[in-house]
Every structure is written in C-alpha cells, then in structure tokens.
Design goal:
By secondary structure, the protein is mostly helical. The chain has helices at 2-10, 17-49, 52-55, 74-80, 82-93, 98-115, 119-137, 144-184, 186-202, 207-213, 218-238, 240-254, 260-265, 271-287, 307-322, 330-358, and strands at 59-62, 69-72. Helix content is 73%, strand content 2%.
Length: 370
C-alpha cells in the first residue's frame, strides 16, 4: 500500500474533492468558454453586424457517406471543438504531461459526441479518467511517445463508450426536469434556481459548467441568469465603500468568487445578494418571462463579461428567426435591465444597509485584497 501511495504521489494523482470538484470543474468552464461560448458570441456578432468573414464558411466537411457537406463558420468551428476544449482544460488542471494532454483532444471529441445533449458532463468524467490513466504510464517506458497516447486514447474512448451515453442522458433528463418544473411552478422554481445557481457562482465551483452540463435554458436559464447577476452586481455594490471602482469592476464584470475569503470570515455578508436573487428569480420567471435560450453555459455566467446578457439576446435572435418569438420588445429590454442590473444593485444595497445597522456586517468585512 505504501508503494502504491508513493507511486501515485510521484505521478501527481491526487484523489481529492478539491482537485476533481473544484479545479477540474473550473477548468471545464474555461474550456466551455473558449469554444462553445466564444463561438456563439462570434456567430451572433457576425449575423447582427453583417461581418462577412464571421458569416462566411471557412471549412467544409463531407459526412461519412461522402454525399453531404457541412460548412462551418469561425464561430461554428469553435463551438464544434467544445469536447476537446473541455478535455484539454481539465487535463491542464490535473497537471497532465504533454503527451497525455494532447491525447485528450480526440478523447474529448468522442465523449462529447457520445454524450449527446449532456455531452459536456460526459466529457468531464471521461477526461478525468483518461487523464489519470495516461499519467500512470507516462514516461514509464522507452517508447513513451507511443505508449502514453495509445493508453490515454484507448482508455478515454473505452470509458466514453461505457458511460458517456448514460451520463449524457441522465444530465439531460435532470435539466429537462428542472426546466419542466420551472414552467409548471415558475414562482417556487424561480426562487430555488436563482438562489442555488447564484450561490454556486460565488462558491469556488463552476455555475457555468453546471448549467452547461444540465443544458439549462428557457425560464430556468433565465432564473439562473438572475441569480448569478444578483450575486455579482450585489457584491459589487454593497462592497463599493470598501473597494471603490476597482472592486465594482472586478466583482460586477469579473466574479463574486473574490468574496469567498470574506464569506468564510463572516457568512452574513452573503445574505444581501442571496436575498436579492430570491426576489429577482421569481420576477424573471413570473413577471418578465425572461428566458435564456442561447448557449446553456451562459445561464451560469451572470454579468461576467456580460455573457449572461449576450446569451439572453442570442436566444431572442434565435427565437425570432425560428418564429417562436414575434419580435424583441421594449419590455424585453426593460426586464433584462431590471433583473440583471438595477434590482440586484438596489435590493442588495437595501438589505446590506439593514444588516450594517444591526451590526451583522461591519466595516471592512467586504474589503478585497486588490
């Protein structure tokens, strides 16, 4: 047993919740962002502003029969690489050697394809398994350049063949159940989805990866956007007296995760933005009918680079194009502004003022080390 532990330590294989539940999940979100999300944004910019080089196909690929051709724009090609992007990002987070890291490219593509609608979650599990298997044999033979890629790819594709489809189906089913429940009970689910996804955004895990894994769109996606915005804008506003403009930008357009060290010291500072999310969530689902029908990863991004708002807008464009929505109305824009920016700021500030008067939040409790 001691030798096994020593071997695993030498291979940098650490079985821990932090490495797999935080590092790998956070990397998954980065892989999603750099492929699927950026691809969606580029397609939206190209179509809305009529930019030729973003709208024109740059690659044309024939299908297996050789009869049909599929053309890809820059954005579509970036989105197509979501599986490899996630796998390589996870491999980097797990400190994979070069040959293992590069071998995860076909593994990620295969796992995403086999996982269907829940492909990103399938890639998450498969990439971890393939990466650790590759690390086990890395630099253990004189023909490492052959052994390591072969083992990594065969292990990854083999695991994908076993678990990708069931995981994808399960993730899709859970996502569909959440969206169905939100349609059925928009008030209650608006509160739950908004609060929980918002909390996940501030925790050192990835709300974006969770939303992408569950393919969370529609009203549930809108509630998720509301919750994330409440956390980011809320913390940015209530900590303005301590952090000024730098903190406002860092949290409001960056991430509310910056407040985690302060939350550990005084959990009460989490109350104002969380209460705000529990109000904006049901307002989004019941009053404004705010739907996020863009890329699911956008549901968990909030105001980070304004990705959540871009996702909502992309969904409007897609719905208008498909006939599901007649037009983008003034009420749509008012709803987005109120849910994503104005109400989170006002509500969080009001709740924070009350808690400051009660002594629950003290001076410098929200101070960031910027």
């Amino acid at each position: 047993m001691a030798k096994i532990k020593e071997f695993l330590k030498r291979k940098d294989i650490v079985f821990s919740g932090r490495r797999y539940g935080i590092d790998a999940l956070g990397a998954m979100a980065q892989g999603l962002f750099c492929t699927l999300l950026v691809g969606t944004i580029l397609n939206t910019i190209g179509s809305q502003f009529g930019i030729a080089f973003l709208n024109n196909a740059i690659v044309t690929i024939k299908d297996a029969s050789g009869e049909n051709q599929i053309s890809y724009t820059i954005g579509a090609l970036a989105s197509l690489m979501v599986g490899p992007g996630i796998a390589v990002a996870i491999g980097a987070a797990l400190r994979a050697p070069g040959l293992v890291l590069f071998s995860l490219i076909p593994v990620g593509f295969a796992a995403n394809a086999m996982g269907g609608a829940g492909g990103p979650l399938a890639v998450y599990f498969v990439a971890i398994a393939a990466c650790e298997c590759g690390k086990l044999v890395s630099k253990e033979t004189k023909v490492d350049i052959l052994v390591t890629p072969i083992v990594t790819i065969l292990a990854g594709v083999g695991v994908a063949a076993l678990i990708a489809a069931p995981i994808g189906a399960a993730a899709s089913a859970v996502g569909q159940a959440i969206m169905w429940a939100t349609e059925l009970q928009p008030f209650l689910m608006g509160i739950l989805v908004s609060a929980l996804v918002g909390i996940a955004l501030t925790l050192p895990i990835s709300s974006a990866a969770i939303c992408a894994a569950l393919s969370l769109t529609g009203l549930a996606g809108g509630a998720a956007v509301a919750g994330c915005c409440a956390q980011m804008v809320g913390f940015a506003v209530i900590s303005f007296r301590e952090n000024r403009w730098g903190g406002l930008v860092a949290q409001g357009v960056g991430t509310s995760m910056l407040q985690m060290p302060n939350i550990i010291k005084n959990p009460k500072i989490w109350i104002p933005p969380t209460l705000a999310s529990m109000i904006t969530g049901p307002l989004a689902t019941c009053l404004f009918k705010l739907e996020m029908n863009g890329s699911p990863v956008s549901s968990g991004m909030g105001t980070c680079g304004f990705v959540g708002q871009i996702g909502v807008y992309t969904g409007w464009i897609n719905d208008v194009a498909s006939g599901a929505k007649a037009a983008i109305t003034a009420m749509d824009w008012i709803g987005m502004a109120l849910i994503c920016f104005i109400l989170p700021a006002v509500l969080s500030w009001v709740f924070c003022q009350v808690l400051r008067r009660w002594g629950w939040i003290r001076e410098n409790d929200l101070k960031l080390d910027l």
